[in-house]
Amino acid sequence: MLAIGLNSGSSFDGIDAVLIEIGIDRDGHPTTPKFLEAISHDWPAEVGDRVLLAFENKLSLFEMNRLNYEAGAVYAEAALKLMAKTGKTSADIAVIGYDGQTIYQEPPERQLRVNLPANPTPLQKWTIGGFACGTQIGEAAVVAVETNIPTVTHFRPVDHALGGTGAPLMQYLDFVVFRNMPGIMTLNIGGIANCQVPNIDRRKMMAFDTGPGNVMIDHAMKLFFSRAFDNDGEVAATGKVDEPMLARLLDHPYFHREPPRCAWRLDFGSKYANLVIRDAGNLTKEDIVTTLTAFTAESINRSLREHIHNFADYSTLVVSGGGIWNKTLLAMIQSKIAPTLELKLSDEYGLPAIYKEAIKFATLAFAHTQHLANNIPAASGASKFAVLGRQVLPPRMALNLD
Fold first, then answer.
1. C-alpha angle 77-93-79 in degrees, rounded to nearest 5
2. Closest CA to 194 of 217, 220, 215, 223
3. Which of 61, 145, 157, 324, CA to CA, is 20 to 30 A from 312?
4. How far apart are alpha carbons 312 and 377 in whole angstroms?
5. pLDDT for 72-81, tens place per residue?
6. Is the pLDDT of residue 206 over 80?
7. For residues 69 and 365, what is the distance between their CA atoms, to the nearest angstrom?
8. 368 with 42: CB under 8 angstroms?
9. Rounded to the nearest 10 degrees, what angle do helices 61-86 and 45-55 cross at?
10. In 240-355, which ranges are continuous DSSP H helix?
11. Which of 165, 56, 161 has the alpha carbon at shortest distance from 106?
């Protein structure tokens, strides 16, 4: 089957659209997705500017409602652009999968679950039990109508309802691809960085956000150099790490949370970054960018070593995400982890590193259409296996009895 995956992550640097081929393997799980083609689609400024305002909670409910539909139209345009490039029609594509643009994400507060009675009501789980919640925009009905393809979206809420984090979501794809390859861990560096520990026995898997990926680096680059990101880590390569600043950063409350855990822009976003920069004293712009880069690298290193108990059993760290473009960041990660782990790009396993997150959503959507459990309870903290996602059928699949 052919499937399309769409992704706009926490870096908010455009929508990636991928076309994959996927099926069912002999063990009943999906086959490793075969990457066929991809494009990137920019957010139109008139939409993107309001998404940025939504991140800061500066839109009214009415404005958010219209933005949800407009974002859906942008996702539809990305899918149609990919279909035009590949010459595929609606009849060729089994499903489109995407999560929508995350606007808000509230992790579970598991310490509050001591307040729950033995048999809590559904409402009590959120009013006193600290269950997670979140908001993603990009109306799936718009995508299904405009493309005329079944569309699966909103993969996190079912995991939330089962008491899980709902993030990260990369672990299912990593199970599909690496389940028969022991000794591999994966690291995806988007706006937030996350680690996955695949295992053929899903009850033994782990996945958690390590902390910031590119989000704080990108913020500093825009503020100081009017550039979207530090291409090749060129700026970070010219500065020096300020150890006192790095120590303060590593004392962030996020790092006191035990996995399963997830982070979002409110943890390491513009508000926090501005406070860090304000307290940087007389450091040069270059030193600040270098220190923020070192912060991402060291938070990854510490998270892996502190929380993966059999860390020494792993020999390979497979890296993906936009952070691969930052050579200074990758060098810092390698220097901290080496010689324990060898860094390899996911490209070596047939998954283009910059498109892996979009491939993830195509895979999740395909599994949804097959009614396969596409969550990993051991990694998210959910109470049971379930089918993640909501499906909207296109007009061409309606049975018209008139």
1. 10
2. 215
3. 324
4. 24
5. 999 999 999 9
6. yes
7. 20
8. no
9. 130
10. 243-249, 265-268, 270-278, 285-307, 327-337
11. 165
